[in-house]
Amino acid sequence: MNGLFAEHVTVRYGRRTVLDDLTVGPFPTGRVSALLGPNGSGKSTLLRAMAGLGEATGRVMLGPDELSRMSLAQRTRRCLYLPQTLPATVHLQVLESLLAAQNATGVMPDVTGGDEIDAALHMLDIFGIADLAMRYMDELSGGQRQLVGLAQALGRHPDALLLDEPLSALDLHHQFAVMDVLRRETERRNIVTVMVLHDLNIAVRMTDYDVILRNGKIIASGSPRTVITPDTLRQTYDIVARVETCSRGLPHIMVDGLS
Amino acid sequence: MRVPDDDTVTASHAISPDLSDFARQVRGSYRMLLRRRLGILAVIAGCIVASVVLDFCLGPSGLSVGALIRTLLHPHDVSAGQSVIVWQIRLPYALMAVCVGAALGLAGAEMQTVLANPLASPFTLGVSAAAAFGASLAIILQWRLPGVPDAWVVSADAFVFAIGSVLLLDMVSRRRNAGTGTVVLFGIALVFAFHALVSLLQFVANEDALQDLVFWTMGSLTRATWPKLGLLAAACVVVAPLSFRAAWKLTVLRMGEERAASLGVDVPQVRRGALLRVSILSALAVSFVGTIGFVGLVAPHIARRLLGEDHRFYLPGSMFVGALVMSLSSVAARNIMPGVVIPTGIVTALVGIPFFLAIVLRRQGLS
To answer: Ranges for the ABC transporter domain (chain A) (predicted)?
Structure first.
């Protein structure tokens, strides 16, 4: 099977079982997938479990390779989780922070064939923040730091990229710009990208495979148009919503109220 | 956002033409930055040497610089008294200042990083307090470890408790779900617990022992001897390279624990390694010279301002700054009041506080 998938994943925090024998995927390669669901539904937990962070049982496969049998260093090189928290405001230059992320587990084999600094600048450039390279992280806004975090992640050239609310601190322009970059890079590198999203309109318009979670259970999975329906939205978020077609023929979610 | 041109598609590292100039510029300024940091380290190192020379030359004995150097080069050609002053007092005293400062500076720097707390230091997390308790057991209750020679009794007891306190901190940090906050709060609890125990011993102590203990807790470099100096220096030489080897991991850790883990850093392992190194350095330093913990708190903050948080520079920087502050304090301790050596712990705090406040009030320190 292709893509990233997880089988029989169980995660417990203390006595509370967050995910119970969950099987999900495959998240397709070359496509951006979204993980949707209300707060506390287990989205971050699932991403972290697939990335090998925290204690989880079950099997995680990336194509033919079993990630869940690899060491942490190996595994994070293949499959990278980007936490929801922004990079801390440390007295470290943006460029240095990318170099550090690159070298965190020993010097990375040079994926790009180019020079380390060039590669880092290129990553900053595709997110439109090359001009911040020599600025200190503790001088940047939250949104700028989020972009740096994305550049750090993409700069490690993982085969699977698991992003936890990567748009949370960004303005509208940058939300769309980042989605564009992620779609482009995902396709070009033929990698798996899975992101936790709260904006259903972005999900329905700009992702290719969606999974909706509630209380650690999958409500629906598949293409956005089949997954995001009035019915699933009522089940998931307890809201009354419509999926309308806008004047350009694109789907748009309208929320009428609570159910 | 840039639209990828064909170049970037064929070779992912290729930089679009208008970026290549910029890349050259950035590379230039990054190289400059690295050079500047090396320069700053070199300047601090120079200052340390100057301060040690000053420390060696200035003092209450009234020997001229020429006489001191002659004694250093030809110890047998001068009077026994002069030789003792130079070889048994001045030199170990001046060098001990450097070693203690370096050890506490490095220990504080690693502690602040792995515990993600700007207040972390051997002083604030109970290592000094534990050492003081060990010393008070030796001084007041004459409790001694078997087989320890007289000259080492106080240091040995202090060391046992200091290392014990860090191992306790380590045990707490090993517990599952123990966040850095838990560890710091536990350290603070240790401070209060040991202070209370020391007070209790002071309460029952006789006058002489009480005076000895109070003097010990003030921290003084006059306790320096060659074997102690050698032991501490050896510890620094062994431990520092291990710290430097973890520099990248520690740098990434500064960006957030979860982020570091997601980049493949085994955070619990890095933290344990760092705490072990910290425990050896700080316990030795504190047990030899008494409560001189302030350097461990300030030196990392100064180094961070001067060199940033790339730990390849920050760790040696904190070591150097610690050594310099300590050495300058040592000079001040012997020269503020003619003929009196003020306990170094007092001077260190008084010298360090202006630095510290300047940094804190700029509000750009560790947030």
So the answer is: 4-240
pLDDT tens string A133-158: 889 998 899 999 999 999 999 988 88
Please name the residue of chain A whose CA is at the shortest distance from the CA of residue B176: A14
More confident residue, B156 or B63: B156
- The span from the CA of B109 to the CA of B317, in Å, is 9
A24 is in which domain, residue-wise?
A: 4-228
Nearest to B58 by CA among B335, B357, B272: B335
Instruction: Give the pLDDT of residue B242.
Output: 93
Contact of A130 with chain B, judged by CB distance below 8 Å, is answered with: yes
pLDDT of B83 reads 80
Q: Which residues of B touch A176 (CB under 8 A)?
A: none
Burial of B207 (0-12, 13-18, 19+ CB in 10 A): exposed
Interface predicted TM-score (ipTM) over 0.95: no
B27 in reach of chain A (CB within 8 A): yes
Residues A237 and A187 grouped into a single domain? no
CB B327 within 8 A of CB B336: no
User: Is 60 exceeded by the pLDDT of residue B1?
Assistant: no
Measured between CB atoms, which of B23, B258, B266 is closest to A72?
A: B266
CB of B1 within 8 Å of any CB in chain A? yes
Task: Please name the residues between 226 and 265 in chain B that touch chain A, using a CB distance below 8 Å.
Answer: 248-249, 251-252, 254-256, 258-265
Q: Is the predicted pLDDT of residue B279 greater than 50, yes or no? A: yes
CA distance B102 to B72: 24
- Chain A interface test: which of B255, B266, B362 (most A C-beta within 10 Å): B255
Q: A222: domain CATH number?
A: 3.40.50.300
Query: Do A55 and A159 fall within a single domain?
Result: yes
Q: What is the pLDDT of residues A193-244, one digit of tens each?
A: 999 998 888 888 899 999 999 888 888 888 988 888 888 988 888 888 888 8
Amino acid at B46: G
Are A73 and A153 in a shared domain?
yes
Strand partners, A209: A33
**Residue B118 domain-assigned (yes or no):** yes
Domain count, chain A: 2
Residue B361 in this model has a pLDDT that exceeds 80: no
Query: What value does the mean pLDDT take over residues A156-178?
Result: 90
A256 and A183 in a common domain? no
B8 domain residue, yes or no: no
d(CA B146, CA B167): 22
| In-domain check, residue B39 | no
Residue B21, judged by CB atoms within 10 A of its CB (0-12, 13-18, 19+), counts as exposed
Q: What's the CATH code of the domain at B115?
A: 1.10.3470.10
Domain for residue B345, yes or no?
yes
What tens digit of pLDDT does each residue of B203-246 get? Answer: 888 888 888 888 877 777 877 788 889 989 999 999 999 999 99
- Closest CA in chain B for residue A153: B263
Q: Containing domain of residue B278, as a range?
A: 55-361
In a shared domain, residues A213 and A248: no
Mean pLDDT of B77-86: 79
Answer yes or no: do A15 and A57 share one domain. yes
